[in-house]
Structure prediction request, 152 residues.
Amino acid sequence: MIESTQYGANGVVLNKSTNTYTSSGGLNIVEREIRYPNGALQSKEFHDIPNLHVEIILYKPKGTVLSRSVRDGDLIRDYSEDRSLNRSTSISDLSFPRNSAAVDSNSTPQIGQSTDQIDSQGNWTKRTDWVTLPNGTKLVKVTYRTITYYGE
Prediction:
């Protein structure tokens, strides 16, 4: 285990991180807290590396939760301060958004996007934009692109 702490000039902890390792020496768990200069919690992160689980919580200066983001594998969910789901995004192993949808509890139309096709280099060649309405999903636009790759 490795712990690291940074202090402000006034002795207040500003940044604290703890890393634990597997028996084979690989990174296992990463925990980090960042604090405002007055010592109040600004953000808290928890990374479970082997299980691809990440939680990041952002705090307001007075200590209440501003937002929370949770990643489990290829699914990322973002929550607002009232704990309602704001956005859910599925990512591919190529690290670009595959499917993304914003969520609104007021039945307001929400825009979504999905990457439908990728080429041999991992770049998207067809992308669909859609809107979710209270009575269903409606296609907004389909975008195609061609990328020319020159010899290596």
